[in-house]
Design goal:
The chain is α/β, with parallel strands linked by helices and about 325 residues long. It has helices at about 40-50, 115-135, 155-160, 175-185, 195-205, 220-225, 250-255, 265-270, 270-285, 305-310; strands spanning about 1-5, 15-20, 30-40, 60, 65-70, 85, 95-100, 105, 140-145, 165-170, 185-190, 210-215, 230-235, 260, 295-300, 320-324. It folds into two domains: about 1-120 and about 295-324, Medium-chain alcohol dehydrogenases, catalytic domain (Quinone Oxidoreductase, Chain A, domain 1); about 140-260, 3-Layer(aba) Sandwich (Rossmann fold).
Length: about 325
């Protein structure tokens, strides 16, 4: 039997329900994957709460790792017994086993454990496209990163440093400062909407930053705009505090001809080839020691509601991984 988590209504962690099903035979282009680790991401929480709409009822989760147990007709990318991971839809990662498209599986190197892969691939691809495509970071780039002590921040910060950037990290609590510094931040600020932009001006000696990576949303939006140099880029890629209010085009002009973008992982992995390219760069960065999976906690799949609550309430100090 297969155990999976199903979402029949949106709400808090308590709406997550378990279901039992039979093993399925893969169809054309599919594999049957026996999962050994499952990644938990903020997007999962947004889908569960209804902040990001999904068609109900549905499974949940976009990141996992495991063993290929059966392949369907036409599958050439992987073989039975391969260790693989993935970091995009279709939804349904919260399960002990599942069907999954073969072309979107990533073969794992022997030195990368399954739980590490489930902790790093989704967040790593996010960091990769933010730093290389959304805004090409390089030597001398000044970067402001919110959540610098969190699971994504602990990948985004060292990768930005490797590319030559000066990184100002932002955290929500004083006890997170040391963790953000350990990730590689040159400076760390505890968020205060009234003072953040002024602090950025002081740190940069009036230059401000070239790019702001902001997954917080409503709470941080104005401070993010005010931290940017003329023609700087605000990358609003999440809404942990709610979606920002609509911004008038004239505001971007008045603040220095700023650029505003709202990227998504889906748009940057739409084709299998682009997805595999970004995933390969993440694995290469892991192998080179540029980034490292930082697992804060393993939970049994049965404790998925507790895992969601810990991430939602800000207790997580790194990646959360579910074990079927």
């Amino acid at each position: 039997m297969v155990t999976s988590v199903k979402l029949h209504q949106v709400g808090g962690p308590q709406v997550l329900q378990f279901a039992q099903a039979q093993v399925q035979a893969p169809g054309a282009g599919e594999v049957w994957l026996e999962q050994t680790a499952i990644g938990v991401n903020p997007l999962d929480l947004s889908q569960r709460s209804g902040a990001v709409p999904v068609a109900l009822p549905c499974g949940l989760g976009l990141e996992g790792a495991g063993l290929v147990k059966a392949v369907g007709p036409g599958v050439t990318q992987v073989e039975v017994g391969d260790r693989v991971a993935y970091a995009t839809g279709p939804l349904g990662a919260y399960a002990s086993a599942r069907l999954y498209p073969a072309e979107r599986l990533v073969k794992l190197p022997p030195e990368l454990a399954s739980d590490a892969a489930a902790a790093v691939l989704f967040k790593g691809i996010t960091a990769q496209y933010l730093l290389t495509t959304t805004y090409p970071v390089g030597p001398g780039t000044r970067v402001l990163v919110y959540g610098a002590a969190g699971a994504l921040g602990q990948l985004l910060v060292p990768w930005a440093k490797h590319l030559g950037a000066t990184v100002i990290g932002v955290v929500s609590k004083p006890h997170s400062v040391d963790r953000a510094r350990a990730a590689g931040c040159d400076e760390v600020l505890v968020f205060n909407a009234a003072t953040l932009a002024r602090q950025v001006v002081e740190i940069t000696q009036g230059h401000k930053v070239d790019v702001v990576y902001d997954p917080i949303g409503r709470l941080t939006f104005e401070a993010s705009l005010d931290s940017l140099r003329p023609r700087g880029v605000l990358v609003s890629f999440g809404a942990a505090s709610g979606a920002p209010e609509p911004v008038a085009v004239g505001t971007l002009n008045a603040k220095g001809s700023l650029f505003l973008t709202r990227p998504s992982l889906a748009a940057h992995t739409a084709s299998a080839s682009e997805y595999q390219m970004r995933a390969a760069e993440v694995l290469a960065a892991c192998a080179a020691g540029i980034i490292q999976p930082r697992i804060w906690q393993h939970y049994p799949l049965a404790d998925v509601a507790r895992a969601h609550a810990d991430l939602q309430d800000g207790r997580a100090q790194g990646a959360i991984v579910l074990i079927p």
